[in-house]
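Posting this for the archive.
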Amino acid sequence: MKHVHRLTPVSAFDVPGIESWLQDMSARGLRLIRFRPLFCTFERCEPEDRRYRVEACPHIFSGEVPASMKELYEEFGWEYTDAVGGGLQIFTTTDPNAPEPTSDPRTQADVWVKVRRGRTINCLAPLLVALLDMGILLWTDAQGIFLQYVLLKEGALILFMSAFLLITFLSNLGDRRRLDRIVRQLQEGIPLNHQTVWPRRNTLSVVSFTCAVVLLTLVVVFRMILPVTNAKDLQPVQSLTSFHPLTLEELGEKPQLAEGKDYGNFARRNAPSLLCWNSWQVVQSGAITQNGQWTRLEIDWYEIPFSSVSTPLAQELFESARRLNEDIWWHSEEPLQWSAEWPTPDSADYLGLARTEDKYFQVACIASGHHVCVVRWTGQADLKDHIPELVRMVHIS
């Protein structure tokens, strides 16, 4: 027996629309086998005059309809077909004399009220989660790390998830309004209309389903697959090809490790984010001075898809780096005073330089085109004297 699939053009809670559409399908020789919000499965048959009824069964949200319920409907000439979901079941008959499964509108209203109550919870759930996601993004904005979170971490996924949840909320809200109309009509003693002009497509359901598939794919790819397959092990700094990093030798210092790699001297490609596929961390370490200061150069380099946000991102990273709250090396128990300046080299869109009053901590942030770079330095050399080398890391032709 050949099965065919058709996109579902009506909402799961558009009761007259579902009944009318399924009846029209039967007249075209398609009998319903399985109902799904996105598409339904039919079997081919001879065109027939078949009626469908969507019945509210709020105590059955999942699982098989009890045999006793099926037998009760069969006594009235109705056959169980499938579940719509949310406590709605589909029954059908080809007997033109079969009585309506339920004939008292006010009795029906009491049952539909329970279905509406359950749908209200489903309606609000995605909105609450979306508000929580937006709260996280607002918190990152308040902390001055919004662009870092969206461009370099999982913030873009959260934005996409929030959009998906809002679309889901709008779809659920439409269902809730349809249930309101059904309940109001039944409470007024008016039977439901089983014939209506059904829409030709259910755009919101298709968009919601597509967003769900894309979101799931992004989560799997960027949280499970790429962190394992694309992140690199430690490499020698000399093997780096994405950009030419500033080196300790250029700053007049001797590295602890002239060649090779260790945990104080390495280049490592970071796991990609949704909006930053290519980023590197470069660490170079020199000697520890007599007063206990560690000569260390750390570079974070990013390639982002939108050149228009490279300068705002660089400004945000420049502010973040001066908080000295990142690890045991780039850290200060007490707030330190910084002196900052912003030179304007021809080959960079943005350059910020800063150093603490004791001249121990220095930071530089550079942006040009699609590239942004942050340099953290603790050593004797002044980064201000190495602007060409700094610009070289982001000015890539």
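The chain has eight helices and 13 strands. The mean pLDDT is 87.
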